[in-house]
Design goal:
- By secondary structure, the protein is an all-alpha fold.
- The chain has one domain (about 1-115).
- The chain is built from 6 helices and no strands.
- It has helices spanning about 10-25, 35, 40-50, 70-80, 80-85, 90-115.
- The longest helix is centred in the last third of the chain and has 23 residues, at about 90-115.
- The two termini are about 20 Å apart.
C-alpha cells in the first residue's frame, strides 16, 4: 500500500527500501555492537552500507560477515518470541533445516533487493 500512494517522492521510497534492507540484514548479517546499539541516522546509514557492500551473489557457505544458521535461529527467536512456541515440539533436525531455509531466504531477499 505504501508504494501505491499517488504522490510519493523518490526520496521517501528509497528511504523506506533502505530501512527494509537494514531490517532484513540485521537478521542475517553480523552488525558490530557499536552500530547495533546506536539509533542515529548516521548509524542506520552505516548499517545500510555495511550490509549493501556484502557480495550476496557470491557468498560461500561460510562468509565472515554472515551469521551461521544457529546465529540466525537465535536472532529470530529473540526478535520474534512467538516463534519459540511454534518450534517447541519440532524435532531439532527439522528445526535446523527450517532455520537454514529461513537464512537462505533472507539472504536471497537481500541479494534481490540490492539488485
Amino acid at each position: 500500500m505504501f508504494f501505491q500512494e499517488d504522490n510519493i517522492s523518490t526520496n521517501v521510497i528509497i528511504k523506506t527500501l533502505k530501512e527494509a534492507f537494514v531490517l532484513i540484514g540485521e537478521l542475517t548479517v553480523k552488525i558490530p555492537e557499536s552500530l547495533d546499539t546506536e539509533i542515529s541516522y548516521k548509524a542506520q546509514e552505516d548499517k545500510f552500507n555495511l550490509i549493501y557492500n556484502i557480495p550476496f551473489d557470491n557468498l560461500g557457505e561460510e562468509f565472515e560477515s554472515i551469521m551461521s544458521v544457529a546465529q540466525v535461529q537465535e536472532k529470530l527467536l529473540i526478535e520474534y518470541p512467538f516463534l519459540r512456541k511454534c518450534f517447541e515440539e519440532i524435532d531439532e533436525s527439522i528445526k535446523e533445516k527450517l532455520f537454514d531455509i529461513a537464512r537462505k531466504f533472507l539472504l536471497c531477499c537481500l541479494e534481490n533487493m540490492k539488485i
